[in-house]
UniProtKB/TrEMBL annotation:
Organism: Ktedonobacter robiniae
Segments passing through the bilayer: none
Keywords: Signal
Source domain of life: Bacteria
Signal peptide: 1-21
InterPro entries according to UniProt: Bact_solute-bd_prot1, SBP
This protein's record includes keyword Kinase: no
PANTHER family the UniProt entry points to: ARABINOSE-BINDING PROTEIN-RELATED (PTHR43649), DIACETYLCHITOBIOSE BINDING PROTEIN DASA (PTHR43649:SF12)
Record protein name field: ABC transporter substrate-binding protein
Length: 479
């Protein structure tokens, strides 16, 4: 009798499974769309995005996976090698961001955004027409990428300061220093009257960029390549002057000691161990997580040289960062999601801005921003913090096939940061190391251009040189 009961139970289970497979139940099969990036601090936001999209599209489940950057950059190539790549993924070349698409095409990792290759105007009109450029996010006339992050407000270049320490030092938090000499004087007052270090500077890995970009940009450029002359530029006299200013703050004992990373330096600012820290648009959300409220800190433009030339940070078309995988089995669903995600006034845009993660290239940031810190940074950016730089690729389209710049920059890829950190730690002049690095880079650059030109590519150093342009002006010279 027990044996018959067991057989009956098994038969019922098989029948249930068969009915489910044939659609005999109310369960609805869903497509799983996998998205990968390295923004773990946005985990809760991504979960909210996934839930909202599934509510609107019950047939699609979003799995958004965010890991630490170092881990992500190691795992992404392996996912393609094992044919387990995500459907949509984040990628931005560290050497030549504007050539991210060229690299990804060469790897065979991406396909067109729209399965047809030609998104309609309702999608493209979310950006200005000059944001879709052949060789940057278009290939053979078809669209592969789109600008995600705004490139005017978003980025490094802001001075964050602890209002309480300013007040204790007798400084007016409403009037932070605007010149290099004022900055040094304010730092000396802070050190003398509070006993705290004035400045936190991150030196670990490439973290010095948070201090370097705004100071170098204030006198010349935040780029390690000079678009006026078509040369690598760490040994340029103006950049050597920017470095000397930073080094002088160390020599006066105004900088917190140690080769610290950005996490440690940010905690120093939030805990009142240092009064000033330079960072980017992304910092307010991090400070909130550290319990340092917007009422406790101020944000200002970086100080500029007292006399002499002025520069600006670069606006480049380098924010094409989300791509559709060539391995996706759900190209239509991926395209539908990206259209929904980039709705200028949609759920994603409103909540991304509300949560203070940055600014978006496809949204009306000025009207949607509600965070006071973000509004302040929008005002600073509007005052000329960044300017439109020339784009060599538009001058010489064959540069999309060139390896000259990436090969030169890829030799000792973090060489500029290593050279500057060594000079700071050892308290030695920057010029000898900068000369050596620039000579090496420039030789590789010119040799490769010459080889490519001999093979038939229309490329030369002149493609990278815009002699009539000034560092603190929007480039309008045409191509």
């Amino acid at each position: 009798m027990r044996q018959w009961r067991r057989l009956a139970f098994v038969a019922l289970m098989l029948l249930s499974m068969l009915l489910t497979a044939c659609g005999g139940s109310n369960a609805q099969a869903t497509i799983v769309l996998k998205i990968a990036d390295y923004s773990p601090e946005q985990k809760a936001f991504h979960e909210a995005v996934a839930a909202e999209y599934h509510r609107l599209h019950p047939d699609v489940t979003i799995q958004w996976q965010s890991t630490a950057q170092a881990q992500y950059l190691q795992s992404l190539p392996l996912s393609f090698q094992s044919h387990q790549a995500p459907d949509i993924f984040f990628y931005k070349s560290q050497l030549s961001p504007e050539l991210s698409m060229s690299f990804l095409l060469k790897q065979g990792w991406i396909r067109q955004l729209d399965p047809t290759g030609n998104p309609d105007q309702s999608f493209l009109s979310r950006w200005s027409s000059d944001m879709f450029q052949e060789g940057i996010n278009k290939h053979n006339g078809q669209v592969y990428g789109f600008p995600f992050t705004d490139n005017v407000i978003w980025g490094p270049g802001f001075m964050f300061y602890n209002k309480s320490l300013f007040q204790q030092a007798g400084l007016d938090p409403a009037n932070p220093p605007t010149t290099w000499s004022q900055f040094t004087s304010a730092c000396q007052a802070i050190k003398a009257k509070t006993g705290k270090y004035c400045l936190g500077v991150s030196l670990k890995g490439t973290d010095l960029q948070r201090m370097w970009y705004p100071i170098a940009g204030s006198i010349m450029t935040d780029q390690f390549f000079d678009y006026k002359t078509g040369t690598f530029d760490l040994n340029n006299p103006q950049l050597l002057q920017a470095f000397s200013f930073i080094q002088s703050l160390y020599q006066k004992g105004l900088v917190a000691p140690g080769v610290n990373d950005k996490t440690f330096s940010r905690q120093q600012l939030a805990s009142g161990q240092v009064a000033i820290y330079f960072d980017g648009t992304w910092l307010p959300s991090t400070l909130t997580q550290l319990g340092f409220s917007e009422s406790q800190y101020g944000i200002a433009a970086p100080p500029s040289p007292d006399n002499g030339p002025r520069g600006a940070e670069a606006i480049l078309n380098t924010q094409n960062v989300y791509w559709v995988s060539s391995q996706t089995q759900h190209a239509n669903q991926a395209w539908q999601f990206l259209q929904w995600m980039t709705d200028p006034t949609g759920f994603f845009a409103k909540n991304y801005l509300k949560d203070g993660f940055g600014t978006l290239a496809f949204a009306d940031n000025k009207s949607l921003i509600t965070d006071p810190a973000m509004k302040t940074m929008e005002q600073i950016a509007a005052s000329g913090l960044r300017v439109n730089y020339p784009e060599p690729l538009l001058k010489c389209p064959d540069l999309a096939k060139s390896q000259a710049y990436s090969k030169a920059a890829g030799t000792q890829p973090n060489g500029e940061w290593q050279t500057m950190v060594d000079a700071i730690v050892k308290n030695t002049p920057l010029k000898p190391g900068a000369d050596k690095l620039v000579t090496q880079r420039q030789k590789t650059f010119l040799d490769t251009l010459q080889q490519e030109a001999a093979s038939g590519l229309k490329v030369s150093q002149s493609c990278f040189a815009f002699s009539n342009w000034n560092y603190n002006e929007n480039y309008t010279g045409g191509y």
